[in-house]
Specification:
Blueprint: H1 2-33, H2 39-65, H3 72-90, H4 97-123, H5 129-147, E1 150-154, E2 157-161, E3 175-179, E4 184-185, H6 193-211, H7 214-224, H8 226-231, H9 236-259, E5 264-265, H10 272-285, H11 290-306, H12 314-330, H13 332-340, H14 343-356
Antiparallel strand pairs: 1-2, 1-3, 4-5
Helix pairs in contact: 1-6, 2-6, 2-9, 2-10, 2-11, 3-4, 3-5, 3-9, 4-9, 6-9, 7-9, 10-11, 11-12
Length: 357
């Protein structure tokens, strides 16, 4: 009976989270059809979805696995550049932009997952600040590596250099694909709000199903007490790598959306500040709380842009909002209030009444 009740509560919580995202999409679509959404807000819809994907994926590592990672921008960079490169190469072979974009999503997610797996093998043996420092170093290495790659293509094939574009030795028909610090230009702008919404829903389904599965319970057991989890036969390395790889893959998908929403993709965008910003979304939304991460990512992405009219007070209001959200999520009285009025505490009372009858 208790197991069934717990299953129902977790299912209800997942349905509320998915329903919240679907409702937001429907409302925004209705407002856009009615012409009530400004062009500035329309331009922010895809970036907001990118940050939502980053927030829920990082929350899987920080909140569910319990490991602090500061290299999420690096996985996003891998997904962005590999997908943009694949799109430019496939454009001549596949005329359909939609099919190219779908293949680019798969490639971006796959390469980000591969890097997450390879980095996770040595890195996940570390804990705490050491893990954060190494993941931060990975993000910086990826960014600086993309800054020195010069890749072109002509009739004879691909040409690669780590010096400058002049040393590629391409023919007159040569085309630059990756131009060092100038990045990749000419990627088709095919990202839109509907595709981003579908990717968010799919990512949430993957993450929420993982959390409420047997594997998810093993991952949370490692987070709560690694020694106890290992003593009952849980494979620490396996489950840590599973969570870290899935998190990296979803960050790669966010990078695909990001790269196909810009005219010019540059590695300097994926810096330390972006990793910290995503971590702020996770902390303010509640560590381990996917719904809170979504709300925090949306509010904190839109707020600076919506307050541009109040240029003198914009950052002051932004700072006040950050403090209020932090107090609401972490103040003891606020936590007590939320627990008292949450659905999780209301459902067992109804069940106990039935049992008494």
């Amino acid at each position: 009976m208790k197991a069934k009740m717990k299953c129902n509560k977790s299912t209800l919580s997942s349905m509320i989270t998915i329903g919240m995202v679907v409702a937001a999409y429907v409302i925004i679509e209705i407002l856009m059809k009615a012409g009530l959404v400004s062009s500035m807000l329309k331009g922010l819809l895809v970036p907001v979805c990118v940050y939502v994907l980053l927030a829920v994926s990082l929350n899987l590592t920080v909140g569910i696995l319990g490991e602090l990672s500061l290299g999420h921008a690096g996985f996003m960079c891998v997904g962005a550049f590999t997908s943009a490169f694949a799109t430019k190469c496939l454009a001549e072979v596949i005329p359909s932009k939609g099919l190219c974009f779908f293949i680019a999503i798969v490639i971006g997610a796959a390469f980000a997952a591969l890097f997450g797996f390879l980095i996770g093998i040595p890195v996940l043996r570390l804990n705490g600040d050491y893990l954060a420092i190494v993941t931060l170093a990975f993000g910086e290495i990826i960014k600086n590596l993309m800054n020195v790659i010069y890749l072109g293509k002509d009739s004879t094939g691909f040409h690669l250099s780590f010096k400058d574009s002049m040393s590629l030795g391409m023919g007159v028909d040569g085309v630059m694909l990756i131009n060092g610090p100038q990045g990749i230009s000419g990627t088709p702008n095919v990202s839109n709000f509907t595709i981003a919404f579908i990717l968010i829903v799919l990512s949430l389904l993957i993450i929420l199903n993982l959390i409420h599965s047997r594997d998810g319970r093993a991952i949370m057991a490692i987070r709560d007490n690694r020694i106890a989890a290992e003593s009952v036969g849980i494979n620490i390395t396996k489950y840590k790598l599973m969570a870290f790889t899935i998190s990296a893959a979803i960050a790669g998908v966010a990078g695909v959306l990001y790269s196909h929403n810009l005219a010019i993709l540059q590695a300097k965008d994926f810096n330390y500040n972006m990793s910290i910003l995503v971590l702020v979304f996770v902390v303010l939304g509640g560590i381990g709380n996917m719904r809170g991460s979504i709300v925090a990512a949306v509010i904190l992405t839109l707020l600076p842009e919506l307050l541009r009219g109040l240029s003198s007070y914009r950052m002051l209001i932004y700072a006040i909002v950050l403090i209020v959200i932090m107090l609401f999520n972490w103040a003891p009285k606020a936590i007590e209030f939320r627990k008292k009025h949450s659905l999780k505490n209301m459902l067992p009372k109804k069940a106990s009444v039935k049992e008494e009858q």
